Amino acid sequence: MSVITLPPIRQLDAESAGVGFFLCTQKDVRPGRNGEFIAVTLQDASGRIAAKVFDGVDRMRGEFEAGEFVKVRARGNLYNDRLQLIIENIRRVHPEQDRKEGFREEDCVLSSARPVDEMWQELSELIASVGDGYIRQLLERVICANEKQLRVWPAAQTLHHAYRAGFLEHVLQIARVVSWLAEGYGANRDLLVAGALLHDIGKLQELDYGVATSYSREGRLIGHITLGAQLVREAASAVDGFPPPLLTEIEHLVLSHHGCLEFGSPVAPMTVEAFVLSFADDLDAKINMVRQAIRDDNGDGEFTAYHNRLERVLWKGR
Amino acid sequence: MSVITLPPIRQLDAESAGVGFFLCTQKDVRPGRNGEFIAVTLQDASGRIAAKVFDGVDRMRGEFEAGEFVKVRARGNLYNDRLQLIIENIRRVHPEQDRKEGFREEDCVLSSARPVDEMWQELSELIASVGDGYIRQLLERVICANEKQLRVWPAAQTLHHAYRAGFLEHVLQIARVVSWLAEGYGANRDLLVAGALLHDIGKLQELDYGVATSYSREGRLIGHITLGAQLVREAASAVDGFPPPLLTEIEHLVLSHHGCLEFGSPVAPMTVEAFVLSFADDLDAKINMVRQAIRDDNGDGEFTAYHNRLERVLWKGR
Amino acid sequence: MSVITLPPIRQLDAESAGVGFFLCTQKDVRPGRNGEFIAVTLQDASGRIAAKVFDGVDRMRGEFEAGEFVKVRARGNLYNDRLQLIIENIRRVHPEQDRKEGFREEDCVLSSARPVDEMWQELSELIASVGDGYIRQLLERVICANEKQLRVWPAAQTLHHAYRAGFLEHVLQIARVVSWLAEGYGANRDLLVAGALLHDIGKLQELDYGVATSYSREGRLIGHITLGAQLVREAASAVDGFPPPLLTEIEHLVLSHHGCLEFGSPVAPMTVEAFVLSFADDLDAKINMVRQAIRDDNGDGEFTAYHNRLERVLWKGR
Amino acid sequence: MSVITLPPIRQLDAESAGVGFFLCTQKDVRPGRNGEFIAVTLQDASGRIAAKVFDGVDRMRGEFEAGEFVKVRARGNLYNDRLQLIIENIRRVHPEQDRKEGFREEDCVLSSARPVDEMWQELSELIASVGDGYIRQLLERVICANEKQLRVWPAAQTLHHAYRAGFLEHVLQIARVVSWLAEGYGANRDLLVAGALLHDIGKLQELDYGVATSYSREGRLIGHITLGAQLVREAASAVDGFPPPLLTEIEHLVLSHHGCLEFGSPVAPMTVEAFVLSFADDLDAKINMVRQAIRDDNGDGEFTAYHNRLERVLWKGR
Amino acid sequence: MSVITLPPIRQLDAESAGVGFFLCTQKDVRPGRNGEFIAVTLQDASGRIAAKVFDGVDRMRGEFEAGEFVKVRARGNLYNDRLQLIIENIRRVHPEQDRKEGFREEDCVLSSARPVDEMWQELSELIASVGDGYIRQLLERVICANEKQLRVWPAAQTLHHAYRAGFLEHVLQIARVVSWLAEGYGANRDLLVAGALLHDIGKLQELDYGVATSYSREGRLIGHITLGAQLVREAASAVDGFPPPLLTEIEHLVLSHHGCLEFGSPVAPMTVEAFVLSFADDLDAKINMVRQAIRDDNGDGEFTAYHNRLERVLWKGR
Amino acid sequence: MSVITLPPIRQLDAESAGVGFFLCTQKDVRPGRNGEFIAVTLQDASGRIAAKVFDGVDRMRGEFEAGEFVKVRARGNLYNDRLQLIIENIRRVHPEQDRKEGFREEDCVLSSARPVDEMWQELSELIASVGDGYIRQLLERVICANEKQLRVWPAAQTLHHAYRAGFLEHVLQIARVVSWLAEGYGANRDLLVAGALLHDIGKLQELDYGVATSYSREGRLIGHITLGAQLVREAASAVDGFPPPLLTEIEHLVLSHHGCLEFGSPVAPMTVEAFVLSFADDLDAKINMVRQAIRDDNGDGEFTAYHNRLERVLWKGR
To answer: Model ipTM?
Structure first.
């Protein structure tokens, strides 16, 4: 009997049925009307979905845990107007064997909608477009040294762009926006591109990222803002003749990018470029949160549920 | 003896000497080492300058008051490294007679650096570029009905763009920025252009503007945000078939453009467009304040004096 | 067998038994010691009560849903010192048939303790007592046009006076208080009565009210303060010769009644009347919250549980 | 030559001329166009006015100091549209001699517009109207023991009711307001009258009041709220059988009357009476500030200058 | 069969088994995989632990309630890497009978790690070391009069030192710290020792403490800060010749010890001693919270879970 | 005629007369009753004093400027109960010549009351007392490298310890306090001594200090907290085998020492040591401010004038 493959989560509907690979991020055994059932959350690159095991609970209970990649046979089902999966079979992945059937870790982890290679290409062109030789060398040095992480890192643990390659998606979008604003306000574009690419670079040390995202010791005790400024200073010291005043300006961009002291910047923006960067960073994070809250909201109404971080409801549109 | 005309204030130097027309915005008689002198502040379209009458105080004392246009004969002078004018003669303008010598009110009032006709042209093209017919009609209606004011209005009494045609300069720059951001974030450009042009429209009723800027009774008791929303609602009711939901969205843009309740918006942004507009408005005001603080600072150091509104010093650059 | 009718919820005790009509606002099927049971919340005009179905769960499970009016046969029961109802039978109301037995929607919805007709009479006399002809006409016009809603509307979704005719109860009490304060402080009573009756009038558009209360799209995106000011302006434009300065004063009362910007007023009170109105509104809401928290608290102690909105506990008295 | 007496300050105009007694609260010798002049501020029960000595400066310079009562011969004069006095003669008061000509200290100190005896009568009737015997005795005891101070004390050093007998005016007005609110909200009137009369009683120890008002050591280090609660507790201990729970309630009223911790109350209101009292106190202070700011504002416009305490401008009315 | 006694909670491990006496602070019957089980929380002087009844649920269900002392036979067990107790038998304590087997209430209530008698001795010596006779007498008087409570009282209901004799532990540690700081800053040590011992004395009236801690009526309506100041004033009035200015200084220390108005002090520190005391109090409370959060955290990571009061995570160390 | 030398400023009285060397920090020519006079502020190591030139103004006017060291002949004088100097002769210092008469720059600049050599000795012993070899080496390295600056640097531009060697005085006092607290709370003394000595080390780069104190470019754009953390990291990299986790802890101490984000720390304290250090730093700065405000206050009363930074008045004591 040939196996039908389930579509990506974002494309599932009540008619979907087949086999797929996912990351299981939550697993609970709960009492139900007809005995216990297992409630799980599954994730792939495109999204998250709730799923249930009603039949074969005792057999499948020990076949997987939260935090593992799983192979699942299931079908779509509408419950209270929300789509869920009814699981017929589930077990943890056996990497060697399952790879032959198409299992790839990166397909099972929530990811940026933009392909990484395309983003990497854009990043390279962006750096090449920087006119100031010192800044260009600084960027090349930092980017090369961290390519492996940069290709997969999320931009945050939970708040915004909290998915594989979210870091890259975030900094490229900011670079795009600050380039426009540099033109609009006669600001220094080279400095602003450097600020866009480097402002969060300390997150490479602040966060530990594998299947899940967590904070490192340095991340907590020192913080990504200071870690980023130190990384920039060290990288600049390796660029021959890097002018100290230029370094000070770039450090200022990194340090002030949260916009004010209450949000963790030890200094507030004092240059046009620092104002522009902190606005672009804040706006990009906010819009990512708004879009995600609207996409994730399952309610019937025109407005989302109350958003604790943004402290308001959001309009889902006409 | 032929008369030499003084250059605009921004181009004056210690060698300048001649005759010019200005607005006198301040006048004080003060005791000095050798008797009283008169200290005045003069303004033209390009800037402000301090000036002094040392000789002929008694004769000139009654020849003009603060708030009047004046004709002045003076020469440049450096005092504590700052440029000032030494006035040899000063009297209030006699419009009929002085117009023959080139006096024009608009040349004597602090003004946008951009020519008004050029901005008006840009405004017209911008409105013509709006794809949605209802929005375009709404904008045409509001703009036409208020052209006279729009060509001269400042954007605020003191904070930012507080000069002739500052309103136009401010909304056009925001329109430019939100057009880019609409592209960058897949937001509705037509809505955003409407928000850019209409968000401060209540200021036409909030401020009284002649030679100086002050608040009207409605401006104080109702405020430009509510006045603007009412003006938009009235204008839309005159556009045949204007869709109520579209009006609600535009009113939301106007009402939420200060970004949060503490700053006077009765509702916070709840759509991507409202977030974008409030950021663009805030950024444009901030950069205008930064640039002006740097331009106006006369100190020797690399940093400006403490800026009370921004609550920090600003870096004047390398 | 003749049917005994249950008393109103506020008068129930452990000895009560009989049949009654209610609104069911919550319904949950839960696992219990001896199988599943159904936990529901019932509401009538006088209050709310918890109730349980222990016997016949499978039969009754499908007979009603949350949000429906229900016919219930039940008896009182004390559980952990709190009164609840044990349901013997429950089904959704069949309006035509049940009306014959006395079912009326308004008896099943939490309501003001004051009779609506009595309040309406007081409202009419209050308007008639206004000396200024323009203000009186404005009030008559707004009240007539909205009588149907005004007779049932709540004052808020959850915070205070959140029940049928709560709006009317709230504005009449404020009108009473501001009349006294007008005398005590030599303020303009006509203006203050107008402010009392109109300050929340935008809630007629902000809230959707049927069996439950929710926010409308305009309510969220524009807000009741601005909606109210617009409604007042439109109504005044229909009163022949309404003096613009008088309209500005009334709009100021509506706009500033939350007392400060942080609470959503786009302008702060700038007149004695605006100060008086915002204090009276705040005090009336606070006392309604305090009284309700004390009435709803079931604990043994002298103090209520912590009140999240008021950020304190309240003393229930000696 | 018979002496013409100047009218009270509030009734002076540019035509006034004659002799009067005042308190001099400020005195500065300043350089002027024709030599030095003396600028002083004079006060009587009805208000304050600026005055100048232009002629005879050397002779009069030593005849008086700030803080002394003075005898003045002067005439009214308009300067920049504001009324001032031109002093022809000024010297410190010689009490024995000048009393014969009508000098009385109390006529020269800024005072409540209400006659003290009338207020005292109202106070006595108010206490007599209290139904609860314990509360009545407590009030009698506190009032009797402090009659001398109560007849002259101001309610504050600068903020509101900052004039002779302002304390009495303030507490009587609050008593009037809380009596109405007690009726309107079914609150305990006896408790509220006690709260109205006692809430600020600690100010008798907090402030030192003679010709001017200042803070005592206890006033600064302990504060009027705690001093008041202690005074109430001591007075109650002298009333035979005063019920401890009643004392606790009254202490709570005194302690919580600033409404919240940030404003210096160590506990927030937790009873309906405490909410009512704190609102009435705040409202009375605010209205006194608003009325005074409007009365003192000399500007031409419809609005006062920015009020630093209220953080807004105020509308002076149509 | 001889009975083995369980070690104190802090010394339990997975191998522990035997009988012990505890306070049961929580009891819940929950549905489980194999029928219901009972989840309880047990407490002794050294700590808290979770425990479960899996077998004999029906028999033991009625044998005890939350809030009672219990006799328990149990054994240690690791579940998700956390230690819990599996209960084999549990019943409420029969005091007379169980005292023979060693039951003592004080052994079953969370307590300071320091022996009370040792702390009492330190307290006595501390008072004896005070040089100023008035202060020493005041302290002796207050301490003697309250010895019984002082030996057992906690320092707070939940925040810090919330256990038996926590009050004593807290004030002695503060006395130690302020003695050092008095030396380091040339401050008045006698005053500071008085402040350390008296600053929280109002908590004896604010809290009711038996098996659990709760607030008294006076504690809520008046608050420990004012109660403490009143207690000090009354005690001082019983010391012959106690100098009023000294009393004012001590009252200031008590009243200002929360450091600022927002935290409930009606006056802010205005003397070096008041600054020192408020810092020492805050620091001691913070360190107690930090230590307890680290001790109670069961997670694997280097950091504790988010601490709601301190608004951060804490580092558990290398 | 032999020359009498003036005593240090703190010891001057109305009888003092003679010659002295000072720093002139302010100079104004002002109009007076009998012609112009010169008002200056003079400074030496012990304090500041106002002085006046009444005779010989024209001759002395050009003999010195603000910011220069001056030689002065003067005598004490009481004016409005405050001591000032009446200058008989003043001219700028001619270093070579005046050194012979005892002029030394350091005697003319406001300085710590503690001798620098004594403090340096204490610092050396303190470092030698550190048990952890890595920490001791780190401290030695940082201290040696910066001895020249450390011997003269102030701790701040204006707030606290704003005088020569104020930095050393401040860190030594903190080291003393944290040593006690390490003992009292069982915290790591070596870490705390490192934190005390290094927490403000970035101020060596933040401030420019010569005769006056100002901010450097790096000081403004990067800030002393980040500069200090970078300096520590660089110094540690030069210590062979310095353990990275130890470095992280020390960096955390430096970064979190302002106690919270609002005050410029990019991370809040997360360890007992970080809490202790931030409290000790804040307390030392506060007490220095309090002492200085009391010392500088010239008023008659028991309390100082309102202190803008501390937002209160301070008690000057009995």
So the answer is: 0.89
